[in-house]
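Case study 2.
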Amino acid sequence: MPAKAKEKTGKKLVIVESPAKVKSIAKYLGEGFDVDASVGHIRDLPQPSELPTELKKTSVGKFAVDLDNDFEPYYVVYPDKKKRVSELKAKLKDADELYLATDADREGEAIAWHLLQVLKPKVPVRRLAFTEITKEGIARALDNMRELDTDLVDAQETRRVLDRLYGYEISPVLWRKVARGLSAGRVQSVATRLVVERERERMAFISAGYWDVKGTFATGNGESFAAKLSAVDGARVASGRDFDDRGQLKAARTKIAHLDQASAQSLVDNLANTDFAVTSVEDKPYTRRPAAPFTTSTLQQEASRKLRWSSKLTMQIAQRLYENGYITYMRTDSVFLSNEAVTAARKQATELYGADSIPAKPRVYKAKSDAAQEAHEAIRPAGDMFRRPTDVRSALSKDEYTLYELIWKRTVASQMADAKGFTATIKLAGTASDQRVAEFSASGTVITFRGFLAAYEEGKDVDRAENAESENAEARLPQLAIGQPLAGEDLTALGHETTPPARYTEASIVAELEKREIGRPSTYAPTISTIMDRGYVTKRGGALVPSWIAFSVIRLLEEHFAQYVDYDFTARLEDDLDEIAKGQRARTDWLNLFYFGKDGSEGLKNVVENLGDIDARAINSIKITDDITLRVGKFGPYLERALPEGAEEGTEPQRANVPEDLAPDELTAQKAEELFANSQVSEKELGVDPETGRKIVAKDGRYGAYVTEIIPELTDEEIAALPVEYYKNGKPKPPKKPTKVKPRTGSLFKSMSVETVTLDDALKLLSLPRVLGTDADGEEITVQNGRFGPYLKKGSDSRSIESEEQIFTITLDEALAIYAQPKQRGRRAAVPPLAEFGVDPTSEKNIVVKDGRFGPYITDGVTNITVPRGTNLEELTREQAIELLADKRARGPVKRTAKKAPAKKAPAKKPAAKKAPAKKPAAKSTEK
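Prediction:
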């Protein structure tokens, strides 16, 4: 009897990535559509250790990728997604059609393909792609449904396999030669190299000094303006741009006058009574065009410059704006605007700034890179009619509103007219009493028509060579004529020092990666997060500072994997992946070439297998001076001075710890000598504990000074004398080395130091916590010193006391009196904050760190956020505090739902008969 045909339900199952989109999309689709979310990827490559036993010794075992069969990935469903998959399969049974509506980029295409492989639908499947969650955007997507783009899937899968091969082959070398837990990555290693190379430039930089003269010049009718010395006797006065990073003047076609303090001051003195006259007046038209609408990278850069946000925070807030229908898709490298968006932008510009604020024809922007391939439109306000920021303010959080306003302004400005004006440059000269001819110049720009500047002005990273010349950028100069006399006033000689190349900020490193065409829009924020999480880079202010361990990692990669951290090679990888995405190249051929090599091209496998000996000590050494070397050790960086010739055998070299907060470019020869000088007292023997006979020492550790006891290890004779244990058969077991006894330690009080602490002080510190006695219920009360000061402890109830010295003087009665008082939280005026970070740019309230019931937390008086676990309070920066508060505000208050009563358990069903094994599908991968 033929199987009964499935009855039509009229339902269409729509699967999106994020649960946050479900409600908005369902509202626009209406009845007949069941919208649900996959919650991101549902499966991925497992760790090799998680593979089935029968696969671990096969060609799949090393990477969870079958090296012998066209790099076929072995995928498994995430354990926490199995329930989600089951729920989607159940919904699919009641649907007549399946719409895969994941994001419109490679990652979204791959998620759709994985859903197709796992759900195995027996109903028609459509690919629904949209770049904005609006009624118009959804309608256009429904009118333009398509098949799954397998070329895009191939490109994403190739990228995933490539990253697995790269990381799993190179990272173990870092573990063996530098430190465990490190990682190498196709983009993260190159980004780290950029940061390290910039720090090397700063370390090698030699500053140069130069002088110039600045003065005020007045006309006969009292108008005055500032001008700067530009030439002496026809030779151009040297500025910062004329020096190289070694402190030397660059070769120049024209003669340059390098003034020192004496020559500059003598010029000022000799110009005291000089008459000046205008020698040149030049006006040039000024035109400035608006910037293109935002791409992912330019949005991250501008949010970093204007809002001081990290790339990660910017993308989190942009994601919420997109999912709630306020902006278009936020991962894109396209600057294109749809006709509807152009019309909307021009209409709003006209309404707000007048009919002359827009050009006659719409502006059309072209991406800098031909590889722009993510989504197909720039980041802009969603919809065919833009909502003004004031229209959405009440519906958005403060950070969401701030970012929406930035995107709205940039989009509207991109369709506005050029700013117009003129730039005037004036030159004047006078002859000093020593016959030197001094020429001064001044320039200023006058904006006569603001155009797009009425709506928005793009931020920029200031170049280190930019100096006081930029002060006159928008200044109006008086009307002057050639030969017009001027009086010089307040002539002053000014000294300057050249500055090293600026460290990268999040904005500038994103710009640099984009300029070099390394990575893609979706990779920038996670790349920066990764290199910070790995400890390769930290933030100081807004600057990215490399750690010493990053120096070791990059040196190893440069010396032994040079090709894989080469900027051009990494950019070519992106081009190759783009060709795979366009169907112009086969993924299998490309992966074979990358891993196995071909026709003289060395593959990664061969490089790793033929590394030869790597000198770990050399890799982890950075020369500071001829006889001082920085070593990256197991417990952090330290300095080591080379032994003099003829030193006795067994002599230990002089060593000194390097503070964690000391940036690499600050470790000069002079600073190294200071650290050595201070290290002389980094350990001091205080004497012997009369009770235990153990030696007591004071040490200066990475986290402050402390005292500890030295517990000698048992000798072989003492171990042999320990009681013998026997096996069941009566034979003696070999002697076991006893477990090491943990030595007692105690932090020094703030009033103590390694140089002044005594044996008596140390024994008192090692005796802590001090037991004061018990309360009426028999519960023990102790006093001790903690990270945030001295305190009493009774069970789980802790109470702060006033000073460290009280630890040894407070009595049980005094402690009981403190416990008799109600416990105060947050209202103790006597307790100062643990740290202060100034005014928050969003709330405009002071940011402080306080000690709370569950540990230290950051607050501006309105928003509170716990200091992340593992974050050292001493290393917490203002920027991190601002970012944590902004992220907490963006997430909003935690929604607490009432607990539901547990559902009654249904009776167990009778197990179904085993099905015959299914035929192997013609899919690309294996599902677990």
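The longest strand covers residues 275-288.
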